[in-house]
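Ticket 4471: requesting a sanity check on a complex prediction with alpha-L-arabinofuranose. Repro inputs:
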Amino acid sequence: MKLTTIIVSLVIATAAFADNNHQLDINTVKPGAAIPSTLYGIFLEDINFAADGGLYAEMVKNRSFEYPQHLMGWKTYGDVTIRDDGPFDRNPHYVRLSPAGHPRRMTALENEGYFGVSVEEGKAYSLSFWARCPNAEDGDTSVVRIELFDYDPNSDRQDFASKTIAVSGSAWKKYHVKITSPKTSPKAALRLILMAVSQKKPKVITDLEHISMFPVDTWKGREGGMRRDLAQALYDLHPGVFRFPGGCIVEGTDLATRYQWKNTIGPVENRPLNENRWQFERSHRYYADYWQSLGLGFFEYFQLCEDFGCEPLPVLSCGLACQFQNTRHMKEAHVPLDSLQSYIQDAIDLVEFANGDTSSTWGRKRAEMGHPKPFNLKYIAIGNEQWDEQQEPLYSERFRLFVNAMRKACPNIKIIGSMGPNADGWKYDLLKPRMREMKANLVDEHFYKPEQWFLSQAARYDNYDRRGPKIFAGEYACHGKGKKFNRYESAICEAAFMTGIERNADVVRMATYAPLFAHVEGWQWRPDLIWFDNLHSVRTTSYYVQQLFSLYKGTRVLQLREGGRIVAGLDGQDSLYASAVIDDNQKAVIVKVVNAGTKPQQITLNLQGKKKQNMTTIERITLLSNEMDADNSLQQPGKIIPHHETEEFTPSAAKEYTMEAKSFSVFIIK
Ligand code: AHR
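Returned structure tokens:
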């Protein structure tokens, strides 16, 4: 039998359909490029209190007293002083609590947490601190009372849970206690009171350092770990790649405050505090108390990648502090080329930390942290949004030195270069040929653009030069024109654009929406993928778009055409966008269709090369709303969520589907 005769169309009589029926022809005979496991991923930067105050579940702000205002986040009573000769050399400050001179007078500390210390009824919290009684003699102890309290006007008492810890001896020791909260209090605080001191020596003093409290119920139950609901939201995206730690914080406001991965490993007590530039980046939203504890450091990051089953993609400083904030004349913001070696070595050492065997210097440190097995790192990005000046190849000359050294030291690592802050314009144009010439494996393109840009760029990669480098769309989100907030219509535009990513999966190898998280009380930048307060989180419509593409990414691209043309909102296509894949594992053809227009459209799916009688079910998952400016919120987390319908496939029926205005559907044909 000839091939043409076995090609059976699902469409029996197209003439029977309305004039405006869009017949999408999907060629299942010749699958195209393999879809990389990395195609859809996540990008985490500590912006919007995403890490400290967010995913990293620490509840005590300024736990090590290292903020420049050493008591920021704390209130004190009585005789509390700051000292700087503590047990952790990189975080030397701690508090000294001395009896306040009268038995009735209290010496105590209160911590306000990140937007409150928020606790839930029946949940246990693990409090710890390092302490000593420096002037203790044999048998001298002090007692520290720990209270959770709030200002509930209906309650007689402020404190609603408490425990005591006896501190003994003049040597620093770590103390732990678990407290279960009898009630939910979103805006509680933590109080530590110096109680009884030794009878023998009433002037015994107590030093406290690294006062920390975490929920016991963290992601995977790890002590000092990640917030369970937020990590679960990431897991549920099934990310293929995980970019970290930025974003702008990679570069730093200046070189001294750039992100340095070596400071983020080892015991958390000794990870030095770093400035978080999102503290002051946005002049309409300042947060003086936003610092990086680095508690979610590179070990925890690699561990999360392992949990999620995705590829790590670290971004490292290229030796240029943020180019937006430092002009090329500010030489102190640029590492001179002949001094770049320590930066390059940091990149090479990171590969050893991730992949080296346990006898290597950095591999041993990984093993000491509890992970002798390598993390199998394959990618590193050098620089975030960097560019060359017309007069000086500021970025590319540094990138070249990294590439040359890394190709020798770690030849299996794929190196990702920056394409500047925009996906077009002179900065982009200058870098493009240079990245190709230097054989960057991938280049990192960023776009925060309005609706029309996302729609018009759905065909962006169809004519992309296949000679490379490959594309990593490392930061993108639709910023509604005049509407920079999470909104349904923006999510639809992102879906339309993503059909172009999927169709071109041979060149676009990774794509990560940005930013990932935002605290409702602490954001600097929106829209964002996941919003949260201290106790709850909500997945936005953009999240569901990402999730649907990721869950149904398939294994190979299928050619999808309407009248021989790609479907990317072209003239006559009535604002329809579409892509198709086959999933060899699920034995399914998956078609994604977006109607970005304001009128419903009729479509038919014409699976060329599939026998109707071999098809069993069609599942359709749809995201639909008629409120363009609406999105899910903590108050209404399920306002706009994907709806599933499954129907038996009837071999005799050719089905016409309505794509409602501003809707996104995934069709899974088994
Ligand atoms: O995602 C927010 C910021 O946008 C990133 O830090 C930066 O890379 C970009 O400008």
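Notes from triage: The first helix runs from residue 3 to 6. Leaving this open until the requester confirms.
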